[in-house]
Amino acid sequence: MSGKGVFIVLEGIDGTGKSTLSRKLKAWLEEKGREVVLTAEPTDDWLGKAVRRANQEDLDPRTESLLFTADRCQHTLRIEEMLKEGKVVICDRYYGSTVAYQGAALEKEMGDNAVSWLLNLNGPVVRHPDVTVLLTSDPGIAMHRVGNRGELSKFEREGYLAKVQNTYLTLAKEAKWTVVDSNGDIKDVLESLKKIVQAYV
Questions:
Q1: 192: in domain
Q2: Which of 16, 48, 63, 178 shows the smallest number of beta carbons within 10 Å?
Q3: How many angstroms separate the CA atoms of 160 and 168, rounded?
C-alpha cells in the first residue's frame, strides 16, 4: 500500500511510552505496506547534540528554547522532504515538547506570556502535523518508569512533570490534538493509536 505523505507526532511527558509506541506503530504501518520513517527530537545531528548538552547544564530556559527551535527548524526541512516522497513520518516529540517543558520552566519568570512566546518562536519553523497524539500518564507512574531506565534528568521531578502535563493538555485542547491515557497496558494503548492513525494512512 502506498499513498501520500503523513506526518504523525506523539507528545507527552517522559515515561508515557512514546518511544516504544512509535516503534510499534512503525512496524504496524510497514506491515500494511507503507514506507515509514521514525524520527525524534532532539535530533542526532550537531544541533540536537547541542540541545542534549544544554539539558545537562544550568542554562536559562530561553536559551534552551532557542536551541530546541534551531534543531527543529532543520529537522522540519528534512521531514518535509520525506513527506514529499510519500513517506509516513512518525516523530517522537515536536514543538509541543518545547512549549510544555520550557513553558513550565519559564512560568515563574514570564507567567502566561511564556507559552505565547514559545508558540510565536516556533510558528515560522514548524509544519503542522496531520495528527498529534498526546499520551498522558500519572506523573508519579511516569517518573517510576523513567527511573527504572536509569535516565532521570533535571526535568524529571514529579511537581514539574505535573505542570508540563497541564500545559500539554491546554495545548491539546487549543490545537485539537487527540489525548490518549497511557497508564494502562501498552497493547491497549497501541490499539487506540492504530484506530486514530488509520484514518490518515
A1: yes
A2: 63
A3: 12
- Check if the beta carbon of residue 103 is closer than 8 Å to that of residue 120: no
List all residues 6 or more positions away from 65 whose beta carbon is below 8 Å from its beta carbon: 98, 102, 106, 118, 121
Question: What is d(CA 157, CA 178) in angstroms, rounded to the nearest whole number?
Answer: 25
Q: For residue range 30-74, what is the model confidence (pLDDT) as tens digits? A: 999 999 999 999 999 999 999 988 878 878 889 999 999 999 999
| CATH value at residue 58 | 3.40.50.300
As for how many domains the chain has, the answer is: 1
The answer to whether residue 129 is domain-embedded is yes
Q: pLDDT band at residue 143, thresholds of 50, 70 and 90?
A: confident
Residue 159 sits in which domain range? 6-198
* This prediction's pTM: 0.91
Number of residues that this document lists for the chain: 201
